[in-house]
Design goal:
2 copies of one chain form a homodimer. Chain A has 142 residues and is mainly alpha-helical. The first copy, chain A, is 49% helix and 6% strand. The longest helix of chain A is centred in the last third of the chain and has 17 residues, at 110-126. Chain A binds a DNA duplex (30 and 30 nucleotides) through helix 3.
Chain lengths: 142, 142
DNA sequence: GCTATACCCTAGCGTATTAGTAGAGATTAA
DNA sequence: TTAATCTCTACTAATACGCTAGGGTATAGC
């Protein structure tokens, strides 16, 4: 299960992409449109900003807008930012590899072999599907 | 990420399958072989027993052994038993569907569409790979 | 029978994570 | 000046995770 926060982040990006590139939305709009608690969304958008997905304008007629093109924002990137590794086991993570304490010889760990295939399958989807694909309902269709 | 407990459960089943069908192992053996805390493993084996994956003999020369054939124990089944739904979103779970609070029209939820594909990809692996496959290093190979 | 060795069962516990809330501050347009 | 906006830090209640503790119950072998 992905976290609620990651889901909110993706929805927020979808909202911004729908608005059109360069168009800004205020937090309140996104929050209402997507039924996301406003103060929580604030934090999420800040994280997305720090990571370079969106940018913001402060003050009276401020708001958020996409910084990167919707075609260039992959679901996998957002998930890794918000939830951390996508991998089902620490010993299979690209961004945060960690040896399993209870695994002596990793190369012939049966469990790892199976989840390696799970990891590849999910990455295949998450790292090839962009926000633009999601809007179009397409993207690396099987 | 799958839980440590689920990983232990799978490893325990792999150990029992390696021992051979009908062969019993005591908790201590499995615990040592797989570096699983013994008391924790007790609980896990008990759950696996209640779910019908293994059976046990009590008393002096007791132990656990597989009840179902290794070919018939899919990774997905074990994961669902120990960790709950395999799906990345509650609204995509087969065993515990729940509508997302923040989702008005599920059928055109962009996020859901993408994760539907993730769900199908992971199920494809988890529900087609058995403990026997894991031991053989094969099983629904791509 | 007795006892040692297994499995069976329930409860609890420390830590971390999740899903937010709260509230003050900084910036800018009108 | 002020009202609307983003920025930042801190806190919190609830839950889950990864165990540990300590009994209880059955059975084989002496």
């Amino acid at each position: 299960m992905i976290s609620q926060k990651a889901k909110y982040a993706l929805r927020a990006l979808v909202s911004l992409a729908k608005a059109g590139q360069g168009k800004t939305m205020v937090i309140g709009e996104i929050s209402q449109q997507q039924a996301i608690p406003k103060k929580f969304l604030e934090q999420i958008l800040l994280e997305l900003k720090r990571a370079g997905f969106v940018t913001s304008l402060r003050g009276r007629s401020g708001g958020y807008c996409l910084l990167r093109a919707p075609e260039d924002i992959r679901f996998g990137e957002v998930l890794r930012l918000i939830d951390g590794p996508v991998a089902p086991l620490p010993c299979l993570s690209l961004i945060a590899y960690r040896k399993c304490d209870d695994c002596s010889n990793e190369t012939n760990c049966e469990v790892r072999h199976v989840f390696m295939r799970v990891a590849m399958a999910t990455r295949q989807v998450l790292d090839s599907t962009s926000v633009a694909d999601a809007l179009a309902g397409t993207g690396a269709e099987l």
